[in-house]
Amino acid sequence: MNGSDRVQLDPADAYPEVAAVRERLVAGDWAGVRGVVDGLPPAGRTMVIRQGGFADAERVLREVLDRDPDDGAAAAMLGFRLIDIGWAIRSDARAQYVSSQQFSEFHDWLRQAEAVLIDGAARNPGDPAIWAARLVSARGLEVGPAETRRRFDKVTALDPHNLTAQFQMLQQLCPKWGGTWETLHPWSREQMLAAPPGAVQGVLVAEAHIEHWADLPAGTRTAYLHGGPVRTELREAAERSVLHPDFGRDHGWVEAASTFAFVFSLIGDRRSAAPLFALLGDRATEYPWTYLGGDVAEQVRNHRRRALAGASR
Fold first, then answer.
1. Which pLDDT score, from 0 to 100, does residue 285 have?
2. Residue 105: φ, ψ to 5°
3. Tell me: the pLDDT tens digits for 249-274?
4. For residue 47, what is the enclosing H or E element?
């Protein structure tokens, strides 16, 4: 496969800090991990803590917390890791397709994560990464909208534009988790407008419409995305974020560019998708491309090829 056909889906390929954290975790160098994450802004720190764990990290992180129970970064990373183990057992299937045994094991792992995160939050109440992790466990344990909102408000009081927390709150506001579209769409736009022009938060508007599209009956999805108001909102969000001259390489930029490349590809707007694929190079994210089924890399590759070919004419 030549370079132009490559698709890199691992966040470690997009963000060097994620790769550095993983390398130091493998080596058991926790001081090195802290040296990386402690130098990042809160939103970037949260995202790297979220993405820096790996399958065998649980043992290392428990050892770190045994030595220093006050280590907030270790608590957040271990909490995320335990949640990921549980979610892998549950799967991303709708509730009616998840067995009672899967749910039992899923909730057991999430309760373990909650125990770690509750203690971590008590010791480090000003750590947004811990509160962001507690948003994921809140959704899985179905603690209710009031408690979930309390946790989100904790994050935003500490870091108003924490994309990891915003992604989690967006999912909570979807009907599949008890929310409504009437709440979600205005919320996502408010989050975008509250951030500076060129910030990644425009992706929240795109993701809300993608979730709405995915929830519709198959025969109505295309019409939804092609509707005038939706296309207008997507264009506004793109121009305020990924297509804005101030759009940079803050943590979350790959997620934003990949999501907009996806949605513009869905509506056949190759002119808008092309610069995003060009910006990404060989990078992409699994979500939301997983919604198309099949091999994610192949889906990205095919849509990228079409968009870039159309742009070169």
1. 97
2. -70, -40
3. 999 999 999 999 999 999 999 999 99
4. helix 42-52
101-158 pLDDT per residue, tens: 988 999 999 999 999 999 999 999 999 999 999 999 999 999 999 999 999 999 999 9
Give DSSP secondary structure letters for 78-138. HHHHHHHHHHHHH-SS-GGGS-HHHHHHHHHHHHHHHHHHHHHHHH-TT-HHHHHHHHHHH
pLDDT-based confidence at residue 1 (cuts at 50, 70, 90): very low
pTM of the predicted model as reported, rounded to 2 decimal places: 0.94
- Are 138 and 172 contacting, i.e. CB atoms less than 8 angstroms apart? yes
pLDDT at 95: 78
Token digits of residue 133: 């992790």
CA distance 266 to 234: 12
Name the region of 96 (left: φ>0; alpha: ψ -120 to 50; beta: rest). alpha
Q: Which residues have C-beta within 8 Å of that of residue 81, sequence separation ≥ 6?
A: 53, 57, 58, 61
- Using only the alpha carbons of the chain, give its radius of gyration: 19
From the list 128, 84, 73, 122, the residue with the least C-alpha distance to 106 is 84
Residue type for position 69: P
Report angle CA 5, 256, 167 to the nearest 5 degrees. 125
CA distances from 101 to 88, 97, 98, 108 (A): 13, 12, 8, 11
Please give the DSSP secondary-structure letter assigned to residue 196: P
Give the span between the Cα atoms of 48 and 123, in whole angstroms: 21
Contact between 210 and 263 under an 8 Å Cβ cutoff? The reply is: yes
